[in-house]
Amino acid sequence: MQYKCTRNRTEAISAAQAIVQGISADGGLFVPECLPSYSMEQLKELGNSSYTGRAMRILKDFLPEFSEEEIRECVESAYSQKKFPGGAAPLVRLPDTNMAFLELWHGPTCAFKDMALQLLPHLLTKSLKKTNCDKTAVILVATSGDTGKAALEGFRDVPDTKILVFYPEKGVSAMQQRQMNTQEGNNVSVCAIEGNFDDAQTGVKKIFTNPEIKKALDENGMLFSSANSINWGRLLPQIVYYFSAYCDAAEQGMITLGQPLNVVVPTGNFGNILAAYYAKKMGLPIKKLICASNSNNVLTEFLSTGVYDRNRTFYTTISPSMDILVSSNLERLLFDLTGGNSDLVSGWMKELNTEGRYQVGEELTAVLKDLFYSGSCDDGKTRETIGKILTEKKYLCDTHTAVAADVYAQYAKDTGDTETPAVIVSTASPYKFADSVLEAVAPGNKQDADDFLKIEQLSSLTGTKAPAPIEELKEKQVRFQNRCQVEEMPKVVLRMAGL
User: To the nearest whole number, what is the mean pLDDT of the chain?
Assistant: First the structure.
């Protein structure tokens, strides 16, 4: 299997090259030339496996130059009991419902990004060897909160790598910021920018394709790579947990094998729900892909109208990991739905860059409407949903998961489809957003000023326990307090890379 570029279909590289490179020279993204197909019998076999077994089976189909033993080493290191106490990606069914939460936040940083970013460093180091590359990989990351910490933790002290993370100074939660700024490791750097996530992401993409910076790195034995979901090695592991959730739903009696599921995903950069789309194409019985947005509802509008328009007000919300107006992975979906028409996709991306909008036409819009249901949820409704689920179902969720739960309720009301079982993707521990969650479950209570006292208060009020990685943050020393303007990012990269 080779990997094609979304903006130049004639470009074809190996899986290892795609993982090392991250993004093409023209800014395009790499996608597999085809997708494997899974029968019901193969799904049954996956159901009899552990999470690591399921991951090994699926990764093998996408990484032909990796041996079975190499994939085993990567997977078992990533999803060990130490990294994911109690197991990765448990499916938690709500009592007396046909709805379950896929909890993807039981890893080292308490967010779903761990599911991919504990694996990516292992894939990358092996890919560097396979491509005969003896350079240091400089991992450049833009984050809206969770990717940054998960990438920092995943690449901490990994040989032959440096990792540099940019985040919007006022666009992450207090706990997300503390997680990043206390990060340990000799190869890590963190910098806040005066702007939003889209500014950070656009800045990073420009740096990736800046010939002068690339030359400076090359002359010093370095090359750029990415840990954002623009890197196929980051997106691939996310496909696995949809297959795993389906197998677990069958094992728990939510469905019988072959019966369809609805999948609900809180979405910002479109990577998480794109992985679900790929799983559906590979044969997983997913009925509807339900895309949930917060007040930054550019995706909601696009999936229902075919018009992508980032020229709108940017909202800073209590679900900050979704505060995004330019969803990078949508490019991969468009490439697939147009039959690999890189000219069309490249044209739309140029329009987005120059005019801030593009339109895909009636035919493709009809396809999008058939595949996806989309809805949005503002902060007020997010808080209300958190409180309602806790009161009625004794389940505490974070602000992003609550957005998904509310949009699922919208879907059920609009379509009347209450019979199809649903899996709602739970992307973060509620304790990463303790202040907002506390306000939702006890709106009349006076909150403590200290973030860690808020955690204690939330635990006491809800009878739940904060994850160990969150509790341990209190004793960690702040290492990074860097900040810069967006236009200063290239200089900061060179400085943080030691050049």
Answer: 95
